[in-house]
Amino acid sequence: MNTISHWINGQTVAESDGARFGDVVNPATGVNSGRVALASADRSREAITAAAEAFPAWRDTSLTKRTSIMFAFRELLNARKEELAAIITAEHGKVLSDALGEVSRGLEVVELCCNISYLLKGGHSENASTGIDVHSVRQPVGVSAIISPFNFPAMVPLWFFPVAIATGNTVVLKPSEKDPSTANWLAELWKEAGLPDGVFNVLHGDKEAVDTLLTDPQVDSVSFVGSTPIAKYIYETASAHGKRVQALGGAKNHMLVLPDADLDITADSAVNAGYGAAGERCMAISVVVAVDAIADELVAKIAERTRGLKVGDGTRDSDMGPLITVAHRDKVAGYIDAGVESGAELVLDGRTTSPNADSDAAFLNPTLFDRVTPDMSIYTDEIFGPVLVVVRVPSYEEGLALINANPYGNGTAIFTNDGGAARKFENEVQVGMVGVNVPIPVPVAHFSFGGWKNSLFGDTHAYGAEGVHFFTRGKVITKRWLDPSHGGINLGFPTNS
Ligand code: NAD
User: Fold this and answer.
1) How far is it, in rounded angstroms, from Cα 37 to Cα 22?
2) Where does the record place the Aldehyde dehydrogenase domain (predicted)?
3) Domains and CATH numbers, the chain
4) With a threshold of 0.90, does the pTM exceed it?
5) Is ipTM strictly over 0.85?
């Protein structure tokens, strides 16, 4: 039995057979590929303490040294990314090209961090007041807990830990227990790159491990990505325990299609963004908002393209893999049942499948609903599966109002050739990441990733300048070199001259 264990202080820490374990299953084959340790509170504290003890030396390691380790990590990850993609596909199920895509997007953040010295440069004002110079620095926060979801086992942790480590923090990563092997692979890569032991630790587990991270006084910051109810819980609990928190939640991303859009390219984009990774992306398009004038034609084009998708094992010639588990597959199928019962028009029914895979238990085919209304659960809920719904609206105004009334605000897109309409949308839409003719507008690494409303609790987005800000604290130093003119008693509040 392959057991995936914690990585603490630069080595694997195995659990005894009396400990708790979870099953790790390849959803494309149904084969149980191993078991993952689920940490107790004591084990969790051990990982946190390792990070806390490694912090002082890592904080004081020179920028040059930290940068050279980051470069070495970048080179190793880039050289071996296919190996990592295969691990992701074997546990998550997404097709290999998609797994490689997520590694590449994560790699971008590592590349950003190879330039961390520039991002950490403070400011300096000479003679800010007479004889007084002022400068600012940003210093690491301490121990960073990173808690990540199943859907991007590499990319989401990579949004955070390169920034945390490059800025001088130490890390405890708690990956999803559904696809845990990626985290250990990354830990071993760090070791090879020369990262000192204890700077990057992996703690496997569930609520018990997470709750310890949220409450242990040695943890200074918490970065979370996952579903909205858990994100809210993480934000409230960790904040109440005095930590800085960024908790990214779920999504329901709308794509507004105006009558002047190129409908062929728009339909391609809707299919790619709706069904890629079987809809298990936080930036997936799950709602197409079609202006009435083009709705019939657009739905026909989406349906035609969707019928051609190849569903199967991600290691074979497939466009779309399975859902993460059979239980999740059944939950998504339940939404399709509910959509039919609520009167939506089922254009493509994904409940019948014949995937190119050894087991069909976790598979659904792409599903398309038309004439969906905002009261239906297929509209209100984040389904997180290959179910695309079309809501028809009379015009831009109603489409915008629909998007802005939605409680989620992660990503959105407008498809149009009208620059004025696009500019109006950019300005008016209440969503954190906006695409103009770009269906999945995940920001590049030197910008920052984050949604609004129920898609983010806290105020700091991931990576880019906001990521650097999150993992550092500002300090301003005001100084003078004393001479006799500085003497004398004056209890007034210091003013500048
Ligand atoms: P999840 O919320 O179930 O789990 C996320 C993490 O929280 C995991 O590490 C899990 O072990 C832990 N967890 C689960 N239940 C917990 C509990 N009761 N107490 C403490 N910890 C708990 O999410 P998931 O199913 O792994 O991932 C899918 C969700 O993540 C979707 O809602 C998706 O939209 C969201 N997501 C959001 C973004 C974003 O950028 N906003 C990115 C990726 C995924």
Assistant:
1) 6
2) 18-476
3) 2-250+450-477 (3.40.605.10), 253-407+411-436 (3.40.309.10)
4) yes
5) yes
Query: What is residue 17's predicted lDDT score, i.e. its pLDDT?
Result: 82
- The sign of the torsion formed by the CA atoms of 89, 93, 97, 102 equals negative
Mean pLDDT of the chain: 97
Percentage helix, strand, coil for the chain under 3-state DSSP, each rounded to 5: 40, 25, 35
Which of the four pLDDT bands, split at 50, 70 and 90, describes residue 486? confident
Strand ranges across the sheet with 124-129: 124-129, 132-140, 472-479
Q: Which two tokens stand for residue 253?
A: 């991303």
Q: What is the DSSP letter of 446?
A: T
Q: What is the pLDDT of residue 22?
A: 98
Q: Is 147 in the pocket of ligand 1 (CB under 6 A)?
A: yes
Geometric angle at alpha carbon 108, from 143 and 155, rounded to 5°? 60
State the pLDDT confidence band at 485, using cuts at 50, 70 and 90: confident
Ligand 1 and 207: CB distance under 6 A: yes
Residue whose entry in the numeric block shows the structure tokens 């199967």: 312
Note if 282 is an active site residue. yes
**Cβ neighbours, 10 Å, residue 229:** 11
Closest CA to 418 of 395, 389, 393, 452: 395
Q: How far is CA 334 from CA 201, 288, 331, 364, in A?
A: 38, 21, 5, 11
Round to whole Å and give the CA distance between 68 and 176. Answer: 30
Ligand 1 centroid–CA 356 distance in Å is 29
| Structural Rg of the chain based on CA atoms | 25
Does position 305 have pLDDT exceeding 80, yes or no?
A: yes
- Using CB atoms within 10 A of its CB, is residue 331 exposed (0-12), middle (13-18) or buried (19+)? middle
**Amino acid letter, 75:** E
| DSSP-derived 3-state class of residue 399 | helix
- What ranges in 364-444 are assigned the alpha helix state H? 377-380, 396-405, 419-428
Provide φ and ψ at 486, rounded to 5°: -85, -5
Task: Give distance in angstroms: CA of 258 to centre of ligand 1.
Answer: 33
Contact between 346 and 356 under an 8 Å Cβ cutoff? The reply is no
* Residue 350 CB–ligand 1 contact under 6 Å: no
Distances (CA, A) of 174 to 165, 187, 301, 400: 16, 12, 42, 37
74: helix, coil or strand?
helix
